[in-house]
Amino acid sequence: MRALLDKLRLKWFLATRSLRYMEDFNEISLRIYLNHAKVIHYRRGKPVYSLSTPALYSKPAANFISRTLYRSIQNRNIPNLMSFAVNDACDAACEHCSFFAAVEEPGRKILSLDQATAMIGEAQELGVSIINFVGGEPLLRKDLPELIRSVDKDLSTTVLFTNGSQLEARAKELWDTGLDSVYVSIDASEADVHDTFRRSPGLFEKALRGIKACRRIGFSTGFSVTMTPESWRDGELDKIIERARKCGVHEVLVFDALPTGRYKDRDDLVDNEGWVDEMIRSVDHYNRDSAYPGVVFFSYITSHRSVGCSCGTSYFYVSPYGDMMSCDFNHAKFGNVIDEPLWKVWERLTTTPGFCEAKWGGCKIKDSEFRELEEVDSGACQSCCSSTQTMIRKNTKEITTP
Questions:
Q1: pTM above 0.85, yes or no
Q2: Comparing C-alpha atoms, which of 164, 165, 181 is closest to residue 217?
Q3: Chain CA centroid to CA 187, Å
């Protein structure tokens, strides 16, 4: 009789407490990852906490959780996020650009539609649940809708990063592809400063019109912001967040300027986390206020407080030419998806010393020790790499295995 009563008590407990427990679990896990647990949008009826994560209770979210389980069973790295640069054309010339100073190779052919859709399918087979479409300026690729349409939306959420120049005219077309979210680059609260930074007159107003069109249709929308130490000291972030609130934008994603691309010689951005940590702490009151968009920092997610630098562990970048790199900002190549299966290139990336573990303390490209790494003996990572020696060339475009 006592055993029966205990079972009934347990069932009653589960029936009355499970929903609250799931709510607590969601809140804590999202707070760890994003530094907030605020629902910023309901997209197609499902709650969204960040454009950079699948909507809660969506099929891509289930895929993300399932792959996390299999990652532990297989005891190997499985990617959950891919950025694909769909083209090497752009109508801006941004001051900080990491693409045109490091990735672009004039004369090389970009992936065809068939090659790109095949690559996307392979990435989804490998486990990717979030696909970022980037560039160049991705909206300058005419068949971008076909690329987005090729994604199995049961497996992956889709995100577009754009400067917004073409967005107003193409917003409805993009919605019809099943695209979920749109980040528009906004680096200053006023048009003249933004357009000067992006070296494109009139771009600010075009971007705001584009994001307004996206909001009206139903996209999850965000500002993608690059903060330099100078713009942070000038109070620009608060002004941008206020601008986002007035525009009804759902999220502000903040990247602190990195010493790569056109900023590769900015030594003041290396080992300089003080201003970034101060900036992260400064937005807590916005994230507690439902009237404001969610504010998420690249530096927070890559720090010890969240998941750490995930390049080469759960994230990779594919250039317009099919080269796999560990990150948009780290330009060493590990192979080409035209020449061999994507999973083999991923395996090479995730078994290369220096890349086979997450860097818990922040972005690798800002770390002086990682930047100075020129030669790594595979003996330091015996479980990961079978080659005798791997040469990693500082801030360059290739990995060579002698």
A1: yes
A2: 181
A3: 17
